[in-house]
Task: structure prediction
Amino acid sequence: MSTTEIMEPTGALAPIGLAAFDLPPPDTKRWVVRRKAIVVAAVRSGALSIQEACRRYKLSVEEFLAWQRAIDRHGVPGLRVTRLQIYRDTDAALRKMAATPSRRVSVW
Result:
């Protein structure tokens, strides 16, 4: 079994074991965090091209890239669907705050 590494947002490396038999089956319907992480790790290691991964698992390129971004920004836990909504809401709120000019309120 070979080892593939996934970059954590802090720059730390989290090794996960990966072999051809570890890849999820092509007919996967339920995408749990570990399966998503294995597919991203396979593409990053060169064991699978992004085109092969998308074709094999019937993913759009955008969906696969969203998985990669989630790992880059929030680590493997960012792949959880419930966490994605929290991260999206947080990112949207931060962008809104950054775009809104701050106003000082005087209290007399």
